[in-house]
Design goal:
The complex is a heterodimer of chains A (473) and B (72). Helices cover 71% and strands 5% of the residues of chain A. Chain A has 19 helices and two strands. Chain A has a two-stranded antiparallel ribbon. Chain A is globular, with a radius of gyration of 24 Å. By secondary structure, chain B is mainly alpha-helical. Chain B is 81% helix and 0% strand. Chain B is built from three helices and no strands. The termini of chain B are far apart. The chains are: A mainly alpha (473), B mainly alpha (72). At the A-B interface, helix 1, helix 2, helix 8 and helix 17 of A face helix 1 and helix 2 of B.
């Protein structure tokens, strides 16, 4: 039954796309994030809905889209080089079969991230993509939040729509992505045009953000707690009343403490004492192994190169009877332990060149969004922005925060090729290109207002002296 | 049960959003960029018209050439 409902929804969007082909891009985003073919039963499991949606999205863009203002940016080129490099390392992987399995989904995520900015030519499209991502993640988060609020949850106990601990349905990944998207959710309460600012939209957004905050609590994902802390610290930069924000966050945190289960405290306590937990202890060992491995294999070992690791370490095991607790150090041998960090994941799998590309991809994103935020925020404060442009700086802030939170989460889990974050990169590129097109249109107009070649030289000089004049002209 | 509620809410809100997008003209053509382009075109046209009018005005006020006057 559920499978048919999903198929009906997919059919509905495919039909709508006949009028607006861009909706097929959104359909692919929805399918890629939520994976309805893995939730439903019956026919939908045997259909390649993801492939159909991608073919429709790409074909629709190629044949029916206006493609006005489409550009190929530096970050897209970087993604393309990274894509080609990953393909090469897959061919030379230490574990070819396992590397091939991972490559099967990574190439689709990378290719879609390269393609996505081509379609983001209008404000409505940028917003629609953000909304689809928020609602697809939101669908998972709403269920999780309700379960946690009603008393469910616990490490490894919380059930999602899909319980195979992979992709977005891995608890730490979901926690990171959910927290990363909270600034974008709030953006919709102020600047949304698909759902205009309204008390109902604000109420829904508050409930959704609350559900997002419940994900790390319900799943007891330590990374999630770190992401919340990182987001709180980062928000200080954008908050006008910082003292009020600190006091409010403190009071809210203290008020939440009595409602948290003991198991949550126990799990979070291992953040400060990683030696007492196997998951945390092995990370250190894997990271050391990765550094040694990449020193010997600078070009990387291809996907799943971690399968070659093996190490023995001492781990304290506490045993208590009555009032006495004994600590015994036992030797633990681990083999094929995963990287547990995106930085080491990329370093081990793609070597130094891949790591530099991956890091550059995210750092340029942070820098790009900072530039957009600064430039359009300045215009906003100067009163130069109309209603049509007031949304740009806050959107850049939300996307910048998403990357920051993702990078914090990525320090402790292998989510380097996470499709949602690659979509965020696509969204950032799209926003940046859109801003450049506005600036370019204004500058062109300013240049045209001077007649003749002498005027053009004057205009160029004017631009060099003060670009704001050219932009506002 | 909770899963069904969550799926219904998510899909319901998404379906309404997609319906609104289908009916929106700004999805394929950006109103701001289009407005800027239109305004630039109009200004360019106005400038050309003004220049032509200026040239025409200068020609009308220019005194007649003595040579052509003698020929006639």
């Amino acid at each position: 039954m559920l499978g048919f409902v999903f198929l009906a929804f997919i059919g509905f969007v495919l039909l709508l796309g006949l009028r607006r082909p861009y909706l097929w891009v959104l359909l692919y985003v929805y399918i890629d994030i939520l994976a309805p073919q893995r939730i439903g039963f019956g026919v939908i499991q045997s259909l390649q809905v993801s492939l159909v949606a991608f073919a429709a999205a790409f074909g629709g863009w190629l044949l029916l889209d206006r493609k006005q203002g489409v550009t190929f940016s530096f970050r897209q080129a970087l993604l393309l080089v990274f894509f080609a490099y990953c393909f090469w390392t897959t061919g030379h992987a230490d574990f070819p079969a396992e590397a091939g399995t991972k490559w099967n989904w990574v190439w689709k995520a990378l290719l879609f991230a390269i393609f996505l900015p081509f379609t983001l030519t209008t404000r409505a499209r940028i917003e629609a993509l953000g909304l689809t991502m928020v609602l697809a993640i939101g669908t998972i988060v709403i269920g999780t939040g309700m379960k946690v609020t009603l008393g469910g949850g616990g490490y490894g106990n919380l059930k999602f729509f899909v319980n195979d601990n992979s992709g977005i349905y891995e608890s730490s990944t979901l926690a990171t992505v959910a927290i990363a998207l909270t600034p974008l959710i709030w953006w919709f309460t102020r600047y949304g045009t698909i759902y205009r600012p309204h008390w109902a939209v604000t109420a829904f957004a508050i409930a959704l953000i609350f559900a997002c905050l419940m994900v790390p609590i319900g799943t007891e994902a330590r990374t999630g707690l770190l992401c919340i802390a990182a987001l709180a610290v980062l928000l200080l930069r954008y908050t006008r009343r910082r003292l009020l924000f600190i006091v409010g966050a403190g009071v809210l945190g203290l008020a939440a403490l009595p409602f948290l289960p003991q198991s949550y405290y126990d799990r979070m306590a291992t953040i400060a004492a990683p030696g007492g937990d196997e998951s945390a202890s092995t990370r250190m060992a894997v990271w050391e192994w990765t550094l040694e491995y990449v020193a010997q294999n600078p070009a990387g070992g291809g996907f799943d190169a971690y399968r070659g690791n093996s190490f023995t370490y001492q781990m304290p095991v506490r045993e208590g009877t009555g009032n006495s607790t004994s600590v015994e150090y036992r030797k633990v041998t681990d083999e094929g332990r995963a990287f547990h960090s995106s930085l080491f994941e990329v370093l081990g799998e793609q070597g130094y060149p891949g790591f530099i590309m991956w890091a550059l991809l995210h750092l340029t994103g942070l820098w790009q969004m900072e530039r957009v935020r600064a430039r359009w925020g300045k215009r906003d404060r100067a009163g130069d922005n109309g209603e049509d442009e007031a949304w740009i700086a806050p959107m850049a802030t939300a996307l910048q925060l998403a990357t920051c939170v993702y990078l914090v989460g990525a320090l402790f889990q292998g989510i380097a090729y996470q499709p949602v974050m690659l979509m965020i990169i696509g969204l950032q590129i799209g926003l940046n290109s859109y801003c450049k097109r506005i600036e370019s249109a204004r500058e062109q107009d300013a240049l045209d207002s001077y007649s003749g070649p002498r005027g053009r030289i004057k205009a160029k000089r004017g631009k060099a002296d003060g670009p704001a004049d050219a932009v506002t002209a | 049960m909770i899963d069904y509620i969550a799926l219904s809410i998510g899909h319901g809100v998404l379906a309404i959003a997609l319906l609104r997008l289908v009916m929106r003209d700004g999805l394929d053509v950006d109103p701001l960029l289009d407005g800027l382009r239109q305004a630039a075109l109009e200004r360019r046209k106005a400038r050309v018209d003004a220049r032509r009018a200026k040239r025409r005005g200068a020609r009308d006020t220019k005194p007649a050439d003595p040579q052509t006057q003698a020929e006639s």
